[in-house]
Amino acid sequence: MIRYLLVGNEVLSYNSEQGHQMWHDLVPAMRSIERSLKAQNIRQIKIGTPLAMDVLQSTFPPSRGTFRSDVIGSVIVPMLKFLDRTKSFFFIDAYPYFPWSQNPYNISLEFALFKGNYNLRDPGSGLVYTNLLDQMLDSHHPLEPQPDPESQYPPSSSLCLMKTKNQVQI
């Protein structure tokens, strides 16, 4: 059974004139697909799009994660409203390898690989992170103040998690 239909792949990472046009076409395409499915009486399939971590302007500490200013108003807010209205998901491609490989001196390999006893405390939230993936996912905290903070936000490639307001379920 098909549960999710994802439109594009990391579209907001395309930084060209053509890419910017795709940014503005993304949410309308998602709406169009939803309408087409409804017209065929298909209502159980959730529509989304996988986004890369670069949709965030800042990710550290996680409690200060912010969306990029070039996409927040024109794409992210309309997309979150669509996802909220359709009870769909925010899909994020989170790969701990990339931040570790770009900064191996400040990010422990054990922290990136879920090994060791390394803990990182977020000074803003007080949360303690034992691995880089959890830290990366929590940097999307700007999602919480949106219309339905109980919505679920699974990453789309690294593993299938469903993140609710206060917990992560595998």
Automatic annotation (TrEMBL):
Name the source organism.
Psophocarpus tetragonolobus
List its EC numbers: 3.2.1.39
Report residue spans for region: Disordered.
139-158
- InterPro entries per record: GH, Glyco_hydro_17, Glyco_hydro_17_plant
Q: What class of enzyme is it?
A: hydrolase
**What is catalysed by this protein?**
Hydrolysis of (1->3)-beta-D-glucosidic linkages in (1->3)-beta-D-glucans
Pfam families attached here?
Glyco_hydro_17
User: Which GO terms of the molecular function aspect are on file?
Assistant: glucan endo-1,3-beta-D-glucosidase activity
Any idea which UniProt keywords this protein has? Glycosidase, Hydrolase
One GO term under biological process is:
carbohydrate metabolic process
> What is the protein name given in its UniProt record?
glucan endo-1,3-beta-D-glucosidase
Q: Which family does it belong to?
A: Belongs to the glycosyl hydrolase 17 family.
